Amino acid sequence: VDRLKTQGEHFLTMTLKQTRSTDISHEKSSGTLTNRSTISSLTLPSSPGSDSPIPSMRPPSHYHSYTGDIWMQDIFVEKIESQRRKGQKFRVLFPGSDRFELERMDMWNHDSICTPCLILQPKTKAEVSSCVRGYTAGVRKCLSENRRKRGDGEPIAIPRLCVAGGRNSFVSMKEGAIVLDLSRMRQVIVDADARIVTVQGGAKILDVDLELGRHGLMCVSGTHQNLGVVGCILGGGVGYASRKHGLAADNLVSAEIVLADGRVKTCSPTKHEDLYWSLRGGGGGIGVVTAVTLKCYPLRNAALLTFNLYAPNSRFRRKILEEWSRWICGDTDDEDSVDSNFNCGAPREVYSQIILPTNSSSIPCIATSVDPEVVPQSEFRLEQYREMMKIKLKRSRFFRNSSKSDDHRLPTCWSRVPGLADLRSNKFGAPFRSNSSFRMVRYYDELQGLSSKYLHSGNVFIACKYAKTLSTRIIAVLVEASSGKKSPSNESRIFITSAGHNTSETSSKETAFSSRDMNFVIFIEGKWNETGSESRDHREKQKVTKWVHWVANQLNFCEGICSTAHPESARDQVSKSGRSDPPPGWYNFSRENGSRLNKIKQKRDPRNVFSLASRISWADPTHGCSRNVPVRQSSSRSISAGREGVVSANDCFATPASTLHTKVDSYESNEHTPGNLPAVTNIAASTAGDTLGVDKGGIEASQECNKDNIGLDESSDCDDGNPDHLLPECSPSPCGVDDIDDNIEEWSLAPIETLDYDDNECIEDIMTSIDSQGVMEHSSNISESVDSNSVEHAEHCIA
Fold first, then answer.
1. Least confident range of 210-224, 291-305, 392-406
2. What pTM was computed for the model?
3. Which of 73, 79, 287 is nearest to 735 (CA)?
């Protein structure tokens, strides 16, 4: 009987823990919250410190794996609902509901599928503001409850806030986090006369292309239509027309952003210049971008050339990369090379991409031209071209030379497009070329949708680097990674995309994007398929992850490499032991842009509410390496990969700022700052040691507001004069935190810790020659890549 009682109590506990969820109905005109019981006649007891009982809830529609703190979930629901204003109908989705399951599974990267704590779905910027304020109030309430407990029981963990736009980033959703999902904000408004387009924060490139295509316009964005528009701007944004019209960030006219305190700001070149500057390639982490306005350009049709190059061994792959880089950018390591006509590079209207597979000797190559002078732009000419091509294909079956003789009759042809005409006979050193196809295509769907043929959703682990040139050393790393012993021999690939021209002509001081000298984008896609065996899938994932890290680490030590401002850069590894500084390619900003971006982050988000953002790092030329930018060191208290969406109580500041500020200049330090926070040394996750809400400027700014100290100033929530943008007037307690007994003076969320690598393994790999010809020349470049301690360690390994 006792055993049955124990089993029954355990079953009841697990049932309450795993199945308790809520389906909130906000569609009623009354706007009231409807909660129903999880288990028909069961009502949970009141939570400690709460006057009202926990609302009863209905059973979930699906089994779910959320095992987070239910009490914490209720606190945030209560605070978010307290910020709901009259007429606001944003959705609050709970684990187990039908809509929750559909939303959390809708991820391009299947490896990022997880179970968040809550999913918030606003439809207007006012609702976004309410959600952010509710989240801030929930954090303060959790900190207050932890202080009230004073060590009695396990403290309440704090969920991080994720912002999901295009849902391609690995920080779009995190296990146990609260997700601010902008998927209901995808409106696109085109002003054809002014040639601008206004896009809401949740819109994808596909949404924008379809609207602009109807007007015969295009805007610079990414090359994958599933990407979010805002994410492209924050990361820079390289598209098919970037070499002619610049990056997506360069074409930003204005933006609307909700700050960490809930205020809505409209920024432009003449208004809130710091926000406008930071959004142009700064990586985010300043606020929630709810709308952007971009420049448009007239373009209906483009020329597209695709073919496959045969590379049976590493020697041909190396030759192909050398010849291709020389053709597209005039890129060459050999100053005496005069045997090619491509030393001046392709025209700025030409874009090209080459793909290095790890499981095939066939290398796909893409080349396009967006030159309206040689590609007819009318719809009639496109239809005429297609009809004539059908006739030409029929005639070519009977007449061998008809294909070339009829070219002059076509609206456009391969030989008349500058840049692409060079490839009629050139095969970049490959033995032969197959599947060559030149055609005239619509830009908005046929060219922009081209990536859907070779970029598919699945389990992926990615890294991205910028390269100034494809040097011999970089090419050797890419060839070894794709066809050497390090190759995973699966669906993993390396994409190399052309940039340069207009992307390099804009000054790095005009935007936060500072990698203006880059001519190539190297996208490393590690991919694996599910086999049905959990252990086998885990081994395959480890294999792919290790391969991506190896390629990224090797590229970091190459000259002319730098990291990107994408959130994935936060996964770049740093030294585990601290014996060496990060390699030059690990940093992603210049010293001027990085320090300015860091100050803006301190001013606009002193409490690091948007902690899941790109890291900010730069090298200090006065020391030869970075010494005053902060990176979190790994420790035994590191947050596990599965729980990055939750911040432990020890990683939240809740004490006066004077006891928190500790600046560590040494990369090797392992001491802990007050509050049990691991030491901060070079910047990661978009925060620095003086970014964590503890700087004097941030404190003074927050003291200007009310007693709740949430960072509000005396300015209005809306500053553009548009009545539609007005939010509820500021009250003495705009975040609804009057019921908090303990005053939380200062708090800040800790950043995600940077991954680390083993010095022994990394340096041994760097010292190893890639091939028998020794093209890596590691021995002559070691002193430029690592410090003296690492060199001594490397020499010991060689001995």
1. 392-406
2. 0.77
3. 79
Which amino acid, one-letter code, is at 179?
V
Q: Are 678 and 209 in contact (CB under 8 A)?
A: no
- Give the bridge partners for 161, in sequence order: 178
Picking from 415, 411, 423, 416, the residue whose alpha carbon sits closest to that of residue 346 is 423
Closest C-alpha among 714, 651, 571, 445 to residue 109: 571
14-to-66, 156, 357 alpha-carbon distances in Å:
12, 19, 47
In which order are the strands placed within the sheet that holds 561-563? 433-442, 301-310, 362-369, 350-357, 493-498, 520-528, 459-467, 561-563
CA 649 – CA 660 distance, rounded (Å): 15
By the 8 A CB rule, do 779 and 568 touch?
Answer: no
State the Cα–Cα distance between residues 622 and 605, nearest whole angstrom. Answer: 29
Q: At what angle do helices 759-767 and 778-785 cross, to 10 degrees?
A: 140
Cα–Cα distance measured from residue 233 to residue 284, given in angstroms and rounded to the nearest whole number? 9
* Mean pLDDT, residues 512-524: 93
End-to-end C-alpha distance for the chain, whole angstroms: 69
Instruction: Residue 759: name the closest of 473, 553, 464 by CA.
Output: 553
Spatial distance between the Cα atoms of 698 and 669, rounded to a whole number of angstroms = 26
**Residue 431, number of CB atoms within 10 A of its CB:** 10
- In this structure, are strands 493-498 and 520-528 parallel, antiparallel, or unpaired? antiparallel
Buried-state track 499-528, b at ≥16 Cβ within 10 A, e below 16: bbbbbbebebeebbbbbbbbbbbbbbbbbb
Q: Per residue in 250-280, pLDDT tens?
A: 999 999 999 999 999 999 999 999 999 999 9
Question: 786 — alpha (psi -120 to 50), left (phi > 0) or beta?
Answer: beta
